[in-house]
Design brief:
Layout lengths: L4 H66 L2 H8 L6 H15 L5 E8 L4 E3 L2 E3 L9 H8 L5 E4 L6 E3 L8 E9 L6 E10 L1 H10 L6 E5 L5 E3 L11 H6 L5 E5 L2 E9 L6 E7 L1 H51 L14 H40 L4 H16 L3 H18 L5 E3 H19 L3 E7 L7 E3 L4 H12 L6 E10 L2 E8 L6 H12 L10 H14 L4 E7 L3 E9 L3
Parallel strand pairs: 14-16
Antiparallel strand pairs: 1-2, 1-7, 3-5, 4-6, 6-7, 8-9, 8-12, 10-11, 11-12, 13-15, 16-17, 17-19, 18-19
Length: 579
């Protein structure tokens, strides 16, 4: 552990390479076997699933044909007919049926039966005079009209086909025709479907060369299977035990892989059977190739170890030297690297860290300077111009003697404005005092602007005794008048509200004036978040209010501006609740 990092890296590299080589030699066969088996199993399952989906689609297409025929007016008219024989209707129903059979060669025959036992078909006829309503395919469809019904190996029916298809060449589908208005069952449609299409689906998608795929229905009857002597040696309990996996069973002295996919639509099971020897042959070749690759890799890795070690050690020693200089206080150092690897990223992180330290030092200096300026402004605002207050009081009494009520009103408002501004040197006043100060200011402005200005104040009664920094609302109202209402044509209105929102004391000044252009609005909000980016075109009043709140209570509080140009502006004041 006391050796240099270069020596350690060489030892570590060789240990890792040796361990990997031994692992490949001992466990390679098992790993490759599992990997290839998994890959082949996944591929097999995908193919089985695709065949199952194709079969579902095949059956669904046939169901759609039944649905289309059920909606054909000619067939509906035939089903509604109460006569046992009506040649005209049968001819029309046959024409409708023919439109489907001529474009669907997979159909071996169609029969439509109404509730009176009358039927029409393209190539199928009854064998005897027994009623077709007694047939299993009819009764099941009639008793369960909402479902389709599939029948494999259709034997023992009172039906024959002019083409004499055997039971192993077709399967059947039946479904009831239900009146969409009365929900009354009008009859049943039966379609015989050729198994050749299923054979084509399976043969075109079958994986491997020695395996095969067969289909079983929900009664464990074989729907389709290729000719072989294996399928009938497969036990049903083996198939039932398969659950999203591949199992291996010995048949005739050879291991076979069995897998299945069950269709939720038809209830049929698609079963794949593949000899295990096919996959093992691939593993045998892969084992030899992996051994050769491991030997070559060991030789190449040994040569590259020394080269890689040198390339890693050199920039690490350089970075170590720079870090020591930075530790001693030299923040002008910089790591220049031509690498884009982890060492390069570490060097870039070191450069970023040094720059951030410099920026933080500068930022602290700027913040301290701004804080001193804000404190100076507060001190200047606390100067008590008592001589102005006394002079105004004298003017007010003189105006009263001359019965100048307007002058008295404006002087009283201005005197109240000064009194609250002075507030005996206090920086923190009650919400009620701040409200009186703002009302005095609005009284003066109302006299000045007359009908051009209207205002409304809505403060919750419970907040009036809470404390806040003085003179934070009047500058915002002044801004709304001079930059909003004054620039607006016609009468303007200002709405001032005060309420509690969560753990905040929130005030809102809303005007319907000119509004603020989007570019300037973004500058204002950016300045309110980062006081270092203040611009000359943005008013000092809102900056001063925002900074006083943030310096006193933290960056969580302050002002937020919202505006739509041409419609008005909303400024929200977020202040902590102080009792």
């Amino acid at each position: 552990m006391n050796k240099g990092i270069g020596y350690k890296l060489i030892v570590y590299f060789f240990v890792v390479i040796l361990a990997v080589t031994i692992t490949i030699t001992i466990m390679g066969n098992l790993l490759y076997k599992n990997s290839i088996n998994h890959s082949q199993n996944e591929n097999t399952n995908q193919i089985i699933k695709q065949i199952n989906n194709n079969l579902d689609s095949y059956v669904n297409d046939t169901e759609n044909i039944i649905n289309y025929m059920s909606a054909d007016p000619r067939i509906i008219k035939f089903l509604n007919d109460n006569k046992l024989e009506n040649n005209d209707m049968e001819v029309e129903a046959y024409k409708a049926m023919y439109n489907f059979t001529k474009f669907n060669p997979k159909i071996a025959g169609i029969m439509i039966v109404n509730n009176n036992g009358g039927y029409v078909s393209d190539v199928m006829n009854t064998v005897s005079r027994d009623p077709l309503m007694n047939e299993e395919w009819y009764s099941k469809a009639y008793n369960e009209p909402e479902n389709i019904h599939l029948f494999t190996k259709p034997i023992g029916r009172n039906i024959n086909n002019i083409f004499s298809y055997s039971a192993d060449e077709v399967f059947s589908m039946s479904r009831a025709v239900v009146d969409s208005t009365t929900k009354e069952i009008k009859g049943v449609i039966l379609i015989d479907i050729k198994l050749d299409a299923i054979k084509n689906i399976i043969e075109n998608s079958k994986p491997g060369t020695a395996g095969f795929i067969y289909i079983m229905d929900n009664n464990k009857n074989v729907v389709y299977t290729p000719v072989n002597n294996i399928v009938y040696r497969i036990k049903n309990e083996w198939i039932e035990a398969i659950n999203n996996e591949i199992i291996i069973k010995n048949i005739n002295g050879e291991n076979y892989q069995l897998t299945k996919i069950a269709s939720q639509y038809t209830g049929w099971e698609t079963i794949g059977v593949f000899p295990e020897s096919e996959s093992l042959q691939v593993i045998k070749y892969t084992r030899y190739y992996s051994l050769i690759v491991s030997i070559i890799a060991l030789i190449i890795a040994g040569v590259l170890v020394i080269i890689f070690t040198k390339s890693i050690i050199k920039p690490i020693f350089k970075l170590k030297k720079l870090m020591k200089k930075a530790q001693e206080g030299d923040l002008t150092v910089s790591f220049n690297t031509k690498y884009n690897d982890e060492i390069g990223e570490l060097g870039n992180s070191f450069n970023t860290m040094v720059k951030e330290i410099n920026n933080l030092i500068n930022l602290v200096q700027i913040e301290e300077k701004n804080k001193r300026i804000a404190e100076m402004n507060v001190l200047q605002a606390q100067i008590k111009p008592h001589f102005i207050y006394n002079t105004l009081d004298t003017i007010r009494w003189m105006a009263e003697e001359h019965n100048e009520k307007d002058i008295v009103e404006i002087i009283e408002a201005f005197t109240n404005l000064l009194r609250i501004s002075l507030s005996k040197g206090r920086e923190i006043i009650s919400v009620k005092e701040e409200l009186n100060h703002m009302q005095s200011y609005l009284t003066i402005q109302k006299i000045r602007y007359e009908d051009k200005l209207d205002y409304e104040i809505q403060f919750e009664e419970k907040i009036l005794n809470y404390k806040l920094i003085k003179l934070i609302l009047q500058p915002l109202v002044e801004n709304a008048i001079y930059h909003g209402i004054k620039e607006k044509r016609g009468k303007g209105k200002i709405l001032i509200t005060g309420e509690i929102e969560g753990d905040l004391l929130c005030f809102t000044v809303k005007d319907n004036g000119k509004g603020i252009e989007e570019e300037l609005l973004n500058k204002i909000n950016k300045m309110l978040v980062n006081s270092n980016e203040k611009e000359n075109e943005i008013g000092y009043g809102i900056f001063n209010v925002n900074e006083r709140i943030r310096l006193t209570y933290g960056e969580k509080y302050g002002l937020i501006y919202k505006s739509t140009y041409g419609k008005g502006t909303i400024v929200q004041v977020r202040h902590p609740i102080i009792e």
